[in-house]
Amino acid sequence: MRIITGYCSPNMVKLLSDLNSESSIEIFIGMALEGISYQEHSEYLDIMSKSNGKIKIYYKTKRPLNHMKLYCFSFLNNAQISYLGSANLTQNGFIKNQEILTNIDGNFDKIFELILRDSKLCNEEDIGNYIKFYNQVYENEIFYPLQEEEDNDFVNEDFSIFSNDRQFQNPSIKIPSNLKLSRLYNYYQIKIPILIPDRQQSKSRSINAWVRNQVPYLTDYNSQSFYKFFPINERFKIITDLDEELIGYINGSEDNKLLTSPNIYDYLKFRLGINENRIIEYSDILDYGNNEIYIHSDNENQFYFYFFNMLSR
Fold first, then answer.
1. CB atoms within 10 A of CB 173
2. Is the pLDDT confidence value at 257 over 60?
3. Beta strands in the chain (DSSP E)
4. CB contact at 8 A, 73 and 80
5. Domain identity same for 103 and 157
6. pLDDT tens across 77-124, in order?
7. End residue of a domain, out of 134, 150, 180
8. Do 159 and 244 belong to one domain?
């Protein structure tokens, strides 16, 4: 059995192994350069060490990234069956999501030769020189309620993809007493674009990551080095221009992503006047007249977000 998959999960590899205990299995993880968690890497190593050489798990270590999903099965009578489609070798790919794999005829040896040339076994000693390993932080761990402090009234709610029960106030600009609106453009310390025009992945990533059942987030499109401005691996307080308090979090292993709870998608959807849960398009941003959140901080753990409708000013 030979498999090329964009993403993979150890549980699915274990399931394959259990169902095909006498078969040899080669798995190529084509998007490994995006990073592999230490936990998953450890499980892959364990799977390989216990397989007596029957299971080989490869990380693609050279660009371009490989996002294809190809499953090839060979039998003792030399018969072969191959499937091509959209399903990663993950629980989402085979259980949760709507995906497709279709039977396809052909010889795919050349494709496997090419990806083998650009890959390394996950248990090679120098694999850490090629692949970025990170500590897995799960969404329900990130957004546990903060411990109450005397002068802090943090948001205290569990994470959810949508928060339709949130009661926003009417939009009103909340400016610190020492800041006049006319001085904001000289006062802000960082500004974050919401979306990038003509970038297809914006429809399923960043603020629209909920489409893939992931936490919506703001992306450091400008390479402004979030880690130089926001705390890393700790929660911090955000006050929006709706006078709403959010909890912000940046994972050190993905320091170009700013997560919030309640999530940033709901805030932006409200500000843009979108009433249903749908993808925020770049055209929505153009109609609003502003594609940037302006941010400043009055201390190291409290930040202010301003997302103005420029067309109304």
1. 12
2. yes
3. 2-5, 25-29, 36-37, 55-60, 69-74, 80-85, 101-103, 119-121, 133-134, 190-193, 217-219, 236-239, 245-249, 257-261, 292-299, 302-306
4. yes
5. no
6. 888 899 999 999 988 888 878 899 999 999 999 999 999 999 999 999
7. 134
8. yes
**One domain for residues 292 and 166:** yes
The partner residues of 103 in beta bridges, in order of sequence, read: 83
Q: Are residues 207 and 120 in the same domain?
A: no
Span 147-164, mean pLDDT? Answer: 37
Dump pLDDT digits (tens) for 17-51.
888 778 899 999 999 988 888 888 999 999 999 99
CA end-to-end span of the chain: 62
Residue with tokens 């301003």: 306
Higher-scoring residue by pLDDT: 244, 68? 68
| 267/308 Cα distance (integer angstroms) | 13
CATH code (residue 130): 3.30.870.10
**Residue 53 burial (C-beta neighbours within 10 Å; 0-12, 13-18, 19+):** exposed
CA 49/CA 144 separation, integer angstroms: 36
Whole-prediction pTM: 0.49
Cis before 262 (ω within 30): yes
Q: Which residues contact 105 (CB under 8 A, 6 or more apart)?
A: 82
Cβ-proximal residues to 219 (8 Å cutoff; 6+ apart), any chain: 192, 193, 205, 206, 256, 257, 258
Do the Cβ atoms of 82 and 103 come closer than 8 Å? yes
Work out whether the CA dihedral 204, 207, 211, 213 comes out positive or negative: positive
